[in-house]
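quick one if you have a minute, typing this from the bus. below you get a single protein, a line of residues and a line of whole numbers that encode the local backbone shape. could you go over both lines and see whether the tokens make sense for that sequence. anything you notice is useful, everything is just below.
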Amino acid sequence: MRRLRACLGAAAAVTLAAAGTTALVAGSASGATSALDNRWYAAAPYLMPTDNDPPDAAAIMDATGLKAFQLAFVLAPNGGGCSPTWGGTSPVSSDTAVQSVINTIRSKGGDVSISIGGYGGTKLGQTCADPAATAAAYQQVITKYGLHAIDFDLEEPEYENTAAIHNEIGAARILQQNNPGLYVSVTTAGTADGTGWFGKQMLLEAKSQGFTPNNFSIMPFDGGFNGAASQTSALANFNGTLRSTFGWDEATAYAHEGFSGMNGRSDTGEYFSQADFQTVLDFATGHHMDRFTFWSLNRDRQCTPADNGGRTSGSCSSVAQNAWDFAKFSVKFAGATPPNSTPTPTPTPPNPGNSCKSAWSSSAVYVSGDEVSYNHHNWKAKWWTQNETPNGSDWGPWQDEGSC
């Protein structure tokens, strides 16, 4: 669950021919646009267009070949009401800033999806009276920007609210019916089991309303994950949940399943490298999954010491990389080939004498001065602790002693 966003400004074997194209043509302030292939909307990484030091979308397109972006986030007004805003503060109806970003992307042959919800803030499903009113609010967004795709990012705290999730899923179903060809993704929290209790209740709500989006995507990070193997295991487990919920076979469930990752250092101190992304991409394409995305393009660049200092950032990844390394995995998922680039910088190797301590255990009790290793770093306990994952936060029980 993308806690960082609340703090800093508010996740091949399948061919393009098999993916098909959308048929929706809607009016917008910049005129009607042609839809991209569905595979591009399925590959669109998240971009905050007005927060977290927004990168130049045109520069990313030139450097990587990326064509689609997932713009985040549309929320209810901070003061309440059932009208769409950017981040709770800027009404969609009078927006020109995001429209300008969209115009630039479309002028270069690309397009956008818009994500509603996210972690934190007040969601329209919480403030609108019913599914019809919620759908009417989102229809304003679709009409203004001439959208061919939309993402329902349903997570804390909204997905713990039964009435709000009823409104969101009902709105998604109405929009799907009223906008033929609209690409609809539903994104929710990931756990080792695939998704948690609230995520499973959301799936049951969708089943009860007879709603099937293009995909249900999980975010396997911020939940004790450790590299690609833990993520692909969660995706396999989520496939089982989709099968048992909707009565699908394995292939049908994968065709309606998506991955939404976090590049670099996550909010809880997990690390996901380019190699991890490649492993998950191979899993996604090998299983004919419908979606592969990540949070976020704002973070798809290397930190400087002044930017980051070893902590999670909203505007850089906290891992060694060239700019837009992670965006190139989205390009590959869409079926395109990114241009050649210089090799990824090699991190400074740890001191050979800095060997890893015994691995951290969630069941062990640690006291001040105890040392453990976790995610290729050594950590020292500041005080008594048990089942608190080392993450380097200033207020947490662990002190990061560097890579090992």
Notes: Residues 5-32, 346-353 have pLDDT under 50 and may be disordered.
